Amino acid sequence: MEKVGVTTRKIRLIKGLSQKQVYAGVISRSFANRFESGANDIQASKFLKILDNLAISATEFQYINNNYELSQIDQMLTKVNYLYNTHAFSSLAHWLQQHKNSTNGQVRITAGYVELLLATYDYREFPLSKNIQLLMYHLLSEKNWTVQEIRIVSMLVPVIATHKQFKVKISTITKRMEQNCIHYLTKYSDPFQINNELVNYYGVVFQNYLNSKSYTNAFAMKEKFINLGEKPLDWDARVAQQLWLAVWELYFGNFKSGKLILEKIIDFKKIFKTKFDLNIEAITKVRLQDSQKYRNSKKE
Amino acid sequence: MEKVGVTTRKIRLIKGLSQKQVYAGVISRSFANRFESGANDIQASKFLKILDNLAISATEFQYINNNYELSQIDQMLTKVNYLYNTHAFSSLAHWLQQHKNSTNGQVRITAGYVELLLATYDYREFPLSKNIQLLMYHLLSEKNWTVQEIRIVSMLVPVIATHKQFKVKISTITKRMEQNCIHYLTKYSDPFQINNELVNYYGVVFQNYLNSKSYTNAFAMKEKFINLGEKPLDWDARVAQQLWLAVWELYFGNFKSGKLILEKIIDFKKIFKTKFDLNIEAITKVRLQDSQKYRNSKKE
DNA sequence: ATGTAGACTTCGGTCGACC
DNA sequence: AGGTCGACCGAAGTCTACA
Lengths: 300, 300
Fold this sequence. Notes:
Chain A is an all-alpha fold. Chain A has helices at 4-14, 19-23, 29-36, 44-54, 58-65, 72-85, 89-99, 105-121, 130-141, 147-162, 170-183, 194-211, 215-228, 235-252, 255-269, 280-299.
């Protein structure tokens, strides 16, 4: 870990900026030199102003300051996410065993997250661990969430659905999710890629409504998916959006056109040979069958 | 702009962490209170440690600290990027006129960027402004780039190609681009979405080789696109990757299968009705014609 | 435009006590 | 577990001057 000032100079030179451009109005010229040489630390608020003047994101600064490496906790998080996304569940379980009793607070937080990942992967009943219960109550009691909480909520929907002891309506959570996501959207952009999380959340909720045969609620989800279209979405989010709209058609709209779009998505996905993805084929298979059942039941 | 400590408390409470969990080993218990109440500032290096303990990204901290708004320069950047991506060039030109002579350093940097956006949009000749020249020389003289520089390089390739006064080989820039991108890739993830920039860069270079009839160089690009496949790519990057591989097939491989993939991509894209995207249709049209010309010329 | 040095002021930061 | 107060020390930060 370099001294903050040393990294600041490094970045300033990469960007070809003068000391004046970066420090004017923040610290004095003489102190700027002592700061950059690593002799002195600096106040956090001044540091943030300097980052703005450098036109670099605070996260990138940290990354460079840490010798082009992620922080310890980010390294852990990206690793467990990688294991989860590549369906390496046994490695993930092994990781959990090794770290669940760590004395390090950050490691324990990550361990709780991994527990949740493992527990909610299949929708069947599972014992509610204390960690997960604590997480639930904390999320439900807090009105404001950070990006991390927003990312976790999707995983909690299946927990709520399978454990009736939580007397929370999914619609209440949805409202809170939407309110929190709005905080992270700006006029022209989605800097935290929060819309992807929202699409994902809607997908989980939609599936949950279908599984529990709450068809009125499921029907109403179309509007949510449509409204997403007004916002800037990347391909990941748009594909997911179209996937869920197509599933909606299977149940409540034009079955054939829904099926056609699902086939198109699967066909398109075949161009890539990748191991990273939510299981579009599996979802399609389940939903094609279940929607037909639903349609038949309505006819009778 | 809130005091740093006040925001820190806010986030700590959202996350349900105790002061001990966040400050132990960094600052004393009594000072933690003065800090959180906003009475005192704090050293930057301690602040960074605290961010780690909060398990929040520095960028998100800044965003919350700035009352859930982007910094001034980020607001400007996202706005001009939005205008560019929605092809609102007249608005962009108007923006440039209003801001090009600003005394604010950050605004001037952004103005230089906008100038480059406007200048390189069409590949025809354009007068080289002083700002763009300075940017070029600076980028070429600096070995290390930040994410911002990496994002700009793709735009500079057409400039280099049309202005023979820059005696730089594209292959030299490619090498430097690759070296810098590697810095921002970690073992399990691509936290700065740098692979998207790399795919985009390769696409620009590939097109440039084709335009200048450097077919040997263009032929060699296949390997670059293929190698990207080993890395974690999101849908945006994967679509771009497959697009360029398909164009490669048009020229040097199986014309029919290339054409088929391009048609699949366009067909798939039709599912979405969005105004945000690189112009896949236009690229396809140009390349279908040009590749046939190339193939005919080879037969003779 | 940047780097260094000394003299001086302000405030970041600890400790202990008490609520 | 927070929160607050007073006393104390060292480091952050400025100014001036000279390279």
